[in-house]
Amino acid sequence: MKLNDSQIEDLYAFTRKHYVEYYDLQTELVDHLANAIEDQWELKPHLSFEDALQIEFKKFGVFGFMEVVEERQKVLSKKYSKLIWKHLKEYFKLPKIILLISLTVGLYYLIELAIVNRSVLTILLALSLIAYVVDAIIHVKINKAKKNSGEKKWMFEEIIRQYGSGLWLFFVPIQGINILNSSGIDFVEKSPVFIAVFSFVFVLLFMTSYIIQFEIPKKAEQYLEETYPEYKLV
After folding, report:
1. 40 and 134 together in one domain
2. Within this chain, do residues 81 and 170 fall inside the same structural domain, yes or no?
3. Backbone Cα Rg of the chain
4. pTM score over 0.85
5. Can you tell me where the transmembrane regions are (predicted)?
6. Do 201 and 158 fall within a single domain?
7. pLDDT tens, residue by residue, 41-77
8. Which domain holds residue 220?
9. Could you write out the DSSP letters of every residue in 59-97?
10. Domains in the chain, number
11. H-run or E-run covering 119
C-alpha cells in the first residue's frame, strides 16, 4: 500500500501541529514517516493510517520532533559558520587584502586621534547606534512582509536572516570601546603595538559583521539553492 496525496498532506499538517515550522524539515520528516507507515502496512495491511502514524511518532520519544529540529539547527549553524569563514578568507587575498590593510591603518590613526580627543569615541558610538536602529527597522519590515506573504519557511534561510539582523554591527564598536576603556588610556597611549593589534582585530570583527549583514544575505538565494535542490522549484 502507498500513501495517497491527501495522506501526505495530513503528514505535513501533523509536523506543523508538532511545532516543525520549516518546510525543509517538514519534507524530510514526512518522507521518513511515509516510508515507515508503508513498511508497517506491508506487515499489517489492515492497520489504519492514524494508528500507523502514532506508532511511528512514539519512536521519536517524549519530546517528539524537537530533538530532530535542534540537531538540524546545529548542522546548519555549523554550515553557516563555514560560510562566514569562506568569505572572510577572501580578505586575505588580493585585491581585498588592500582594503583590510587600509582600514587597519586608518583605524590606527583614528584611535590615536581619539586618545587626544575622547569625544571621537562617543561620535563613533552614536553613529553605530543610528546605523543599528535604521537597519533593525528595515529588517523588521522585511521579516513582517515575508511572514504575511505566506511563503514557506526554510531553516537555513532563517539562520541567514537572524544573523544578518544588524546586531553584530552594533556590538563591534561597543566591545572596542570597552576594551580601550578597560585597558586604560595611558597604557594605550604608550603602546603603539597594542593599538596596531587592536586595530587589526577590530577591523576583522567589523569585516565579519559586514559579511554577515551584507555579503551572505546578498547571495542567500544561491546558498539556499545549493542547500535545498528543491528550493527554486518551490
Report:
1. no
2. yes
3. 25
4. no
5. 91-111, 123-142, 163-181, 193-212
6. yes
7. 999 999 999 999 999 999 998 888 999 999 999 999 9
8. 76-227
9. TT-TTTTHHHHHHHHHHHHHHHHHHHHHHHHGGGSTTHH
10. 2
11. helix 119-149
